[in-house]
């Protein structure tokens, strides 16, 4: 039996007191994805509410906590979640500088690299480096269940934001075009925020994204 996918939507506030943002921060909802079966799971991202993630996992073994990138809203309960579930945290090293904005004294346990694979419930989850939103953004491809977990690289309606100095719109488009649009058309796209989509639904809009510039 192939792994199944569960979505936990969490809510929180980020950026409190940070320059360029409202003093009270910004409210966000995030998708936390749990992939596995009744015995073992992988968790993708850890946002806002560790208790909700722990409750969703239940008594199952957690083989790892995989982070799509280092932005606060995707990692802000990573350490608490990993400690509660006795598991390891994986992050691409190019986003360590963002991790350190949230965690000044703790490091992820392991570095993610392009092509790194994880097996859960008989399903292979492969890491694909997709820079652009952040330098270390990655997506996780589960080919056996026709799914990609796209973090903030690809959403329903277009690429993730590239408004920061370390971001690049041309780079995120290239990542999507060469890495994600190379996946089968039937592939479901499960992003870090909002509803799911598919490669087939998003690929025809590429020229529109290029024309609008975001």
Automatic annotation (TrEMBL):
Instruction: Tell me the superkingdom of the source.
Output: Bacteria
Q: Name one Pfam family in it.
A: Lactamase_B
Q: Which InterPro entries match?
A: MBL_Glyoxalase_II, Metallo-B-lactamas, RibonucZ/Hydroxyglut_hydro
Ranges for domain Metallo-beta-lactamase: 29-193
The record's listing under SUPFAM superfamilies reads: Metallo-hydrolase/oxidoreductase (SSF56281)
PANTHER family the record matches: HYDROXYACYLGLUTATHIONE HYDROLASE GLOC, METALLO-BETA-LACTAMASE DOMAIN-CONTAINING PROTEIN
Protein's name in the database: MBL fold metallo-hydrolase
**Source species, please?**
Leucobacter coleopterorum
| Lineage start | Bacteria, Bacillati, Actinomycetota, Actinomycetes, Micrococcales
